[in-house]
Amino acid sequence: MITRSLTLAFALLAVTSATASAQARYDMIAAPVLRAQVVVTGDLVRIGDVIDNAGPAAQIAIYRAPDLGTTGAVPVDRVLTALRAHQVIGVDTRNLQEISISRLARTLESKDIEVAIGRALQHKNGLGDATNLTLTFDRDVQDMRLEASNTGAMQAVSTRYDSRSNRYDVTFEISNEASSASTKLRFTGTAIETVEAAILARGVERNEVIKSSDVVVERRPKAEVGNDLAVRDRAVGMQARRQLRVGQALKTADLAKPDLVQKDQGVTLVYQAAGLHLTIRGKALEGGTEGDVVNVMNLQSKRTVSGVVIGRGQVSITGPAPRLPDMSDATSSIQSSQAAALVAIAANAASTPSPKAE
Fold it and tell me: 160: closest CA among 190, 183, 133?
């Protein structure tokens, strides 16, 4: 009798101890709590993403994730229904009505894609710098979203360019930290090298001086305009060697320094030597720009002399200095008739003219 009573007591004690241990373990497991905002990086939403303290059920997928880089809202009652289907109960909803689910993404902007293609093509098969390339695409390239795990840089692994057709074919690889396989992106289209060119805004006649308002700067295909382009700042103020049409790209060969002396124009002959400065009127027998050697008629002596164009309507003549009267102040003592005679002497002594510089 005593033995049976002890056995029963031990049995009751064991049951009581097991119940207490189970209750302690239950108390140690925190109740699942719903999250108001969920952020995922993949294409699936799992139980562990939407609640805290999910336990062994954390990796169970319950929803498809929103599109890359977007956010969606899910009512709480639908979330609880999905959780109960996997025996997850007793969730603390914190009186939420809905939860938001966002999917992270890596965004490649279209301008960055174009820059990467330009860098891959620069100096390829005769192309110039990437900044001078104008690209077109066979398919419209807009901002692209990739999985957030695609963290690597865009590396060009294949680059082809045909200079005859201007066609390109470029393939990039982007390393993926969540996978051993890289993401590949391929782009095709045309690449044309362009340069800044001075373009005529109106037609210009031969020998006409180009004004600032006559020229605009545009980018043109290099193959179209060639290498002999004139810079706008240097083109303005120059004289057209031939007739030029509107919209034409100016080239260095099209331009010349403007004529400062015109044929049959009245000019001033200038003689300077040893502190002496004499001038006399003449007539240009040919036109010329600054630095050109031209023939000029001395209107007083009717003799033809040569001189260098030094300014608008001015020609400098050279020769031996004429002998001046022995006087203390020659400049103030020389009369106008004497000055003309001295210029005539200098003009007669000038060297034989050389051909006009082209």
Answer: 190
